[in-house]
């Protein structure tokens, strides 16, 4: 099966600033992908490269097996501010979508508008943040894309509006079988809807993989203080902290942890994301201190 999104050594620079560096990922089709990382990590840049709004500085990117092209009917994109036209009504947005997109699914658009309770005569500028997000998702979904890219679509929404948006997203993906890549700071929301995770920090991919596999292979170890290098093969230390007598390690392990001196705890998705983000931040501090 063709990958939904595949990159090899993908790099993008804005002048002298590197926004994305040596990014290599292979996202299977048919997955709902969570793209997470701090501000400035490169999430928006990756999504804009994927929808053809930016060109790589170096490296390769393929979307559904093809080079990205702006305006592709196979890709739907909802940018950070869930862009809609304030002066147009909901109905006018649907008519514009039908005019611009040969694959437009009018019944789907009308059904979603009714499901989320949008007034067809209401101008978008008078809608709430949650309603605007639902309208933007409706317009993107009614293109009938094979890949839907969502850049922080729920960042400005209250919890109730976020829940409504995510419920609509889950219903749409289940019905249409579309691949989704959604960036967000809200890991708890991603955990509800995503089955694949990419963590970006400092413009680089720190980890990418199936959510169930990541949760199964990451552990917190607590035990007497020791050198993390003594853990042995098949275990990679993601994050380490120590007191005078105790070590606490976050590890990714493909081998059983059978040392009885360790207390072994499972992690949830947020624990895993925070461990990779913390280690990336600590690495930046070490680099800056080394430059003094």
UniProtKB/TrEMBL annotation:
GO-annotated molecular function: ATP binding; ATP hydrolysis activity
Domain (ABC transporter) ranges: 5-227
Keyword Nucleotide-binding attributed: yes
Keywords for the protein's UniProt record, in alphabetical order: ATP-binding, Nucleotide-binding, Transport
SMART domains linked to this entry: AAA
Stated name of the protein: ABC-2 type transport system ATP-binding protein
Organism, as annotated: Actinoplanes digitatis
